[in-house]
Structures are given as structure tokens and as C-alpha cells.
Amino acid sequence: MDLTELINLCKQINIDYKIGGKTASINSFMVGNRANIIVFPDNIKKLTKILDLVLVNKYKYVVIGNGTNVYFCDDYDGVVIVTKQINSIAVENNCILADCGASITACASVALNNALEGFEFSYGIPGTVGGAVYINASAFGSSVSNIVFESLVYDLKTRSIKTISKQEHQFKTKESIFSKEKSYIVLSTKFLLENGNIQSIKEKMEKYLNRRKETQPLDLPSAGSVFVKPKDAYASQLIDEAGLKGYRIGGAEISKKHAGFIVNVASATASDINSLIKHVKAIIKSKYNIELKEEIIYIE
To answer: Which residues of the chain are modeled with pLDDT < 50?
Structure first.
């Protein structure tokens, strides 16, 4: 892959980049070796210029935020675009307007400070706005789809920017138009919230954060919940009942604290994780005739 044009663009418009950058350093699973190049645009205009260039040159590429729901193959032969420096958050009446790389937890804090309710469920989720909208992040009975008003997106087919309505997001459980069709990249999202009481909002946020600390293996590298909730069941409960807690392949292990998580306990590779996922799916299928579907994303 000839990176000359991309490197020249990064230098021209002042975008940080790392040739041969380590992908393990940009995902919470701490899995992966190197990518051809990792770029870090710090505003939407720079991001769209990078996207224009990779599309015109037909580079293989992927866009991530904090990398909290993904893991990488050993060597990624392409361009990794990291958006976490594109992170402004603004308040407009009852709305929060947040860039794709803004922390979803930071959005919850801004909502709290402005006595706006609806974001409490996301407090403690380590991902970004772009990732949360992409996967329709959910917790404690609420989801991103409940509060999205509209998003500014980059249309990969026309290489143009446009605004899409909530309906056009095509939200379903752990799914959106971004994950289904992959024709858009989230640039920013406007969330519509309700007026609330600061104290009650704060209490709810603290309760949810404490629940996460008590039940999730936050002390070990992971990519969050591995599987989408199957109909009329919980993946973690099925995995636990199947006796798989603590089951390990290489450096990847089913968390002893929460069976819905795979944790990196000893320099896990993508192969370790993939083998463990395959094993879990096979066991659950044979025991319960339930097909588990991955929520975490493998970048290869």
C-alpha cells in the first residue's frame, strides 16, 4: 500500500499519524499487532478529508472511536482512522450535540450538569458517541435509540455530508443502519432529552456505575459484552449455566465475574478470542439450541 498521498495530506492539514502503529494500543481488549497506518483527525472536516482520500484510492480502512467494542487481527493491512480527538459536546436547549469521538459517559455528565435526563443509562459506558449510535448501545432498560434526534453523517456512496432523522437510523436491538448497511459514517449526533432534577439524575447515574463496578470485570482488558441478548434469555446466564465461566483458550478467558465477558488474561491474540467465541457458541447451540450472535466486532 502506497501511503505517500495519505501521509502528505496528514502533514498538510496537521493530522497526527503513526506508520506501523500498534493496534493493541487503540482498543480496550489490548489485542492486535500493527496497522499500515493509524491516523488521528481532530475535527470533522479533517475526518471527511481522510475519508475522501481513502475512498478515492480504494484503501482498506476502518473507523473506530475508543476501540471499546472491537478487537484487531494481528496485522491490519490498511488505514485505521481513530476519532476520539473529535470530541466536542454542546448543549442547545433540551438537546446535546456531540461529535462522533465524544465520550458517551462525558455526554451523560454534561446532561447531569444541565439537569437533562435520558442519558443516565450510559454513565460508565467507555465508548464514544459514534460507536454507541452504530451499535445502539443499551443498558438498564434504556438505549441510545430512545434519545437520538438526528445525526450528521458522511455518505460513503456519494462522498457527501448529510443529516439523517431518527427514523432513518433504523434502530433495532444492538443494530442500526450504520452496522447493517455500512453506507454512512457518524460525524455527530443530536440527542433530545427531558428536563429533570439534578439530584435524582445523579443518584441514578451513581447507581448504574456502582452496578457496573460490582458485576463487570473492569480490572481486566475486554471489549464489553460479547454476545447480543438472545430472545427470551440472557447470554451470560446461558454461558454460566453451561459451566463455561473461567474457560480459557490461550490468553482469552470467560470472565469468572461475568460470563458475558471475555477477558484478556495473558496477552490474548485474536485467534484465542475467535476460538473461544466459537467454542461458546457451539456449546450453547448444543445445550439450548440457541444461536448466539456476537456484539463485539472483529477487525481483520
So the answer is: none
